[in-house]
Amino acid sequence: MSNLNGWGLTARLISKHFGALGDRVSEAIANFDPETATEADRDRLAVTLRETAQKLASARSAFDKEHGDVVRLRELIANDEKAALTLAERLAAGKISEATVTLFCDELEANKARLPVEIQEEADAREYMDELQKIVDALSKQLADFDAAAKKALQELAAAKAQKDLQQLRMERQEQLSSLSSMQTHSTALNALTRRAQSVSNEAAGLRIVADIAQKPLDQAAEINAIRQSVAQADTSGETALQRLQRLSGAKPADAA
């Protein structure tokens, strides 16, 4: 792209066609840095691109017209040059007036004189159109670079955030593991519970000893009572009257004496 501060004829054409926009375009392209631009900068550049693109569309139409004028004028001159031979023959034969031939020659000479002007206007229109196309291409690239930089920045931000979340999760997990390890080895509450359980167990063992001591006389009395009941329930259906008296009195049987 040519230097936008030294356009020469094209710069004058741009200034003539849309005034200060030429300077704004130059400034927008020169000052736009995709790496540091903000969204507002991008919006301004997009507006400039849209305005320039509209001018480019008009410039293309103008060039097409100028080009068409040149083509038609050249065809007209070529045809008139061919017709000149025929007119010369008719003039020599007296079949056409000299005034008519003079008018024809005046128009042909005027068209030939106008052709370089039309060609220059076509060239100017082409240069203007081509320069606008370069500007549109430059603005489009700036916007594309900004969008690419913005996309890259967003991706880097997302990756950084994901990495931060991962590291935060790792730290939390490490704290949890450290806390559990500390509870297993140094937990005051856990030690207190252990000591309390041992104390209760000791109390229970002491109460059991006391209960066993108190239970022993009860067990002995129950055993004696059971013996008495078994003796009282002994079978006496076959004893004699003498044996019954002896049993009741506690005396030994005669044959046992």
Automatic annotation (TrEMBL):
Keywords: Coiled coil. It comes from the Bacteria. Residues 129-179 form a coiled coil. This is Phage shock protein A (PspA) family protein. It comes from Undibacterium curvum.
